[in-house]
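Researcher: Re-running this chain for the archive, since the previous output was lost when a drive failed. Same request as before.
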Amino acid sequence: MIADVGHRCRMNRPLLVATMLLSTTALHAAPTLCQKDEVVAFSCQTDSKNRIVSLCLSKDFGAKSGFIVYRFGPAEKPELVFPKSKTGTQSQFTYDISISAEHIREASTSTVTFKNGGATYTIFREIFDATVQSEGIRVLFKGKETMMACTSEAEEDLSRLSVLWKMERRCGWIDNPTPGNWWIEDSEASWTISAQGGYQADGEMPDFESSWVRTNGYHGYGCACMTAQVDHKNKQIKRYKDVKVLPLQRCKSDKKLKKR
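Model: Regenerated structure tokens:
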């Protein structure tokens, strides 16, 4: 025991730093720059000189509460902390997830993007058939992209960022002319919900039962409202929920909608 105490007394600074790091990451599955009073949304050690990339949330994180912060660098001293202020951080980050299917196997890509100093940073996580294929961070600066991959599976809980999605209420004609093709037409535009062999929104359409005009077997059109995340540029519904089937008369009497 005496020899052990003497050995510990001679510990140099790197060992002290390592001990401090272990104490701050003991509760985490991967190296992290998140603090004890924060929640890990994404964190891993990268192949860039073993530097760590971490996306951290306050415990009270929400659409209008708490904060989100990005940190990157060595464990003992992060090289980049963004943003500097913990006020209004939600508006500076964009979270997205795309899902596609190949036969019975599912693929998904989750991304968190922000801009700083003329560069675009994208944390990414790609999964295929329930297995992580690639994850890390990409930095695009002056047309050149640099990728730093995680050297082991990241600790992540990116779904917490879904509160950043801006959801809108959309009401109008729901069209399903052929299998796999759905869109909603409101007073503003016709929004693609899903296209066979192409775009697939994240959600599930209910059974319209009797409130449905059949134009091709069980296919046709109806009237409904939904809460949706809308891609205004591409006229697409990215994901939706709370679909409410309405009587056909509701859409027929709406003068802002095209007549059917």
